[in-house]
Write a structure and sequence with these properties.
alpha+beta; 12 strands; eight-stranded mixed β-sheet; globular
Amino acid sequence: MSVTVRVPAKVNVQLAVGAARPDGFHDLANVFLAVGLYDEVTATPSPDGLRITCAGPDAGQVPLDRTNLAARAAVALAGRYGRDADVHLHIAKDIPVAGGMAGGSADGAAALLACDALWGTGASRGELLDICAELGSDVPFSLVGGAALGTGRGERLTELEVGGTFHWVFAMAPRGLSTPAVFREFDRLAEGREVAEPVASRDLLDALAKGDADGLAATVSNDLQPAALSLFPELADTLAAGRAAGALAALVSGSGPTTAFLARDAEAAEGIAGALRDAATCRTVRTTAGPVPGATVV
């Protein structure tokens, strides 16, 4: 018997970042939108204990030990229910690695749901979300999907209404960026100035609720973008190429280095993608849309 869970990537349509807290984290107002790029995690009983395998683009960059969020999810669930994490987790990877699209977090949420189903633990949604929050700030949203506002360090979710489909183009950079390094650079750039409390934009939430692409384009923001550009200046060329191709908005996704471009419709998205490929400022380009559901057994 095996259980396969499909889980989406995310884009942050707003990422407001507060000052560093005493625990080293930052308070956030993080508006997530799940988009149709997916990893799949398959859980199968393993007589040899916990095993992780991975295939697909960037698979060579995925850790196959217990530092992998999928492995940590299995261990956390097993520990809560007093059993051994005797499971083989195979990750079919399609979400970019170290790309600011929560690929590792997605795998953690998918593994948690897959192991819950495989072992018949019967964990409640609340218990699963508690474990997700222990694993990382983005993991709860990977379980929930759709659209949500994340507060605290991003793990406390309020699901949001979305009134339509938003079309996106994602340009994957030729190398990754470390999320902790981007936050450290954010702190360095913020030295000597007051950092505002992070608050979700009412205009942005209204645009999501109405399915208004122009309204969303006018309000998207990412407080980590200056830090990502400081560490990876070439991303500015990709952002400029997307804007020149007609993107309604262009921004770094999360901590980067993937860049995200909002398009008016699917046809416009294909045109932007073609222009980005021709500009040759990025490694690969993908088009998709959102919102989509979170982690789902398939």
